Amino acid sequence: MDTSAENQSPSSSDVDVTPRGASSSVLRALQLIQYDDDDSKLQAAKEIRRLTKTSQRCRRLLSDAVIPLVSMLRVDSPESHHESALLALLNLAVKDEKNKMSIVEAGALEAVIRFLQSDNLNLQGTATAALLTLSASVNNKPIIGASGAIPLLVHILGHGTTQAKVDAVMALSNLSTHTDNLTVIKQSSSIPAIVSLLKASKKSSKTAEKCCSVIESLVGFDEGRTALAAEDGGILAVIEVLENGTVQAREHAVGALLTICESDRCKYREPILREGVIPGVLELTVQGTPKSQTKAKTLLRLLRESPYPRSELEPDTLENIVCNIISQIDGDEQSSKAKKMLAEMVQVSMEQSLRHLQQRALVCTPTDL
């Protein structure tokens, strides 16, 4: 008996794939992904990945491919097939909130969790990148956190490839904005791996920014503060970001240091001062964002010798606070650098005040005499 008809791939008339405005390439990919044979599915996955690499329109038109692609992750196929399906899903999820949610709703996380534990570093890295993209969705964050992904991301942060480590810390940064997830990140003892990555990263990089973002959140817990202080060069790495990081990274860095100092000034003041924090935080009082400036000034007040306000005879100005701190600093190099920064800060402050007065004078000057 001829059974070839049973194994034959469905024709285009058997599959309802006619999204309005779809190109022939999109239609063909949607047809292929519905076929039963693995080779057709693999071809479809590769084509979907190509079509959705840069096209937001194709991501919408190919949204119906999500469920069959997720099904490819579940079957016992070569790892190359799994990776191709995952890469296609990854591209479908980029800048598309609906697809991000659909991928999770279709049950992709179970397979992604499995791939995170794979000995195949390519597959593990792709799974990490997929979690990074999926975790950008507010709706997905609690689901991903409850899936058991966070401890695995922390493990990859310590033992994965360089790119996987970067993707892992960015995914953790996304997930940390959900309260329950932050608790799991803390319980996973993530500080050592985060500090290690931060020390190895260029301080002006996005990676350093995300490391400091997670650190700022974790030092809100006593365990996080203790872990950071215990790491060799941990506080110094944060201070280096405060000096050389992106605008947002510097805000995270000064926020982390302020949280630490506010929690126990007597315990953390000396370790922070010892790492040479003054020049960077001083610069931030003038050149940072409004939020950074406020935090930097508060931190300076906490770092001075006495935590209590001064008398009216000695005003509690920023200059006085810094002069007091400088007098306590050990080492000529740090003290000299801090004094130079103070002089520059006063100069910038005077210039800003002068410009402000000039602008007010222009506004107040009558135009018609």
UniProtKB/TrEMBL annotation:
Domain U-box: 40-306
Gene3D superfamilies named in the record: Leucine-rich Repeat Variant
Disordered: region residues: 1-22
Sequence intervals crossing the membrane: none
Identification of the protein by name: Protease Do-like 7-like
GO MF annotation: an example: peptidase activity
PANTHER family documented for this protein: ARM REPEAT SUPERFAMILY PROTEIN, U BOX DOMAIN-CONTAINING
Sequence ranges of the ARM repeats: 107-149, 148-190, 189-233
GO biological process, one term: proteolysis
Top-level taxon of the source organism: Eukaryota
InterPro entries (UniProt xref): ARM-like, ARM-type_fold, ARM_PUB, Armadillo
Keyword terms, alphabetized: Repeat, Ubl conjugation pathway
